[in-house]
């Protein structure tokens, strides 16, 4: 990404607007998008993981390209691309939130409709953290497996 340009920080109201627009376009609960962002980057638009994931929703470079995100550090583009990818995972895994989140984190090739193809502790912890954040945002209660 030689052309990445850091975008000025945006306020919470602007971020909420980006989240709501992407969530509406891709038919994803905006609170779920917020839970993913909280878990992935703690709302840091310039977060970069040791594995190379970028931005609010921690898009890997290949995923960003697949989602037509030209600048993953641009909050609006990152949220749009991450939400689009989350929708793809929800569709692929028939709305199963745990499997969809596992696929978002570990990659869809590592998840089958029956569950994780093999146990990945980091992904199990990730799914639990997203669900905990989602529960806090929505006051929904999930049955623990």
Account of the 3D structure:
The chain is mainly alpha-helical and 145 residues long. It is 54% helix and 3% strand. It has helices at 12-26, 30-41, 61-66, 75-92, 97-106, 121-138, and strands at residues 111-112, 115-116. Strands 1-2 form a two-stranded antiparallel ribbon. Helix 1 (12-26) runs parallel beside helix 4. It is globular and about 40 Å long. The mean pLDDT is 90.
Largest sheet: number of strands, sense, barrel closure: 2 strands, antiparallel
**Mass-distribution shape:** globular
Provide the structure class: mainly alpha
Order of helices and strands: HHHHHEEH
What keywords describe this structure?
145 residues, 54% helix, two-stranded antiparallel sheet, 3% strand, mainly alpha
Outline:
With 145 residues, the protein is mainly alpha-helical. Helix content is 54%, strand content 3%.
């Amino acid at each position: 990404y030689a052309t990445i340009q850091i975008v000025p920080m945006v306020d919470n109201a602007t971020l909420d607007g980006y989240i709501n627009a992407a969530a509406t376009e891709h038919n994803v609960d905006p609170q779920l998008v917020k839970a993913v962002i909280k878990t992935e980057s703690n709302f840091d638009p310039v977060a970069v993981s040791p594995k190379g994931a970028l931005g609010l929703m921690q898009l890997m470079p290949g995923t960003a390209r697949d989602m037509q995100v030209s600048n993953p550090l641009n909050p609006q583009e990152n949220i749009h691309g991450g939400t689009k990818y989350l929708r793809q995972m929800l569709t692929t895994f028939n709305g199963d939130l745990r499997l969809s989140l596992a696929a978002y984190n570990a990659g869809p090739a590592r998840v089958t409709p029956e569950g994780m193809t093999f146990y990945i502790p980091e992904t199990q912890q990730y799914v639990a953290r997203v669900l905990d954040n989602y529960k806090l945002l929505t006051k929904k209660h999930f049955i623990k497996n």
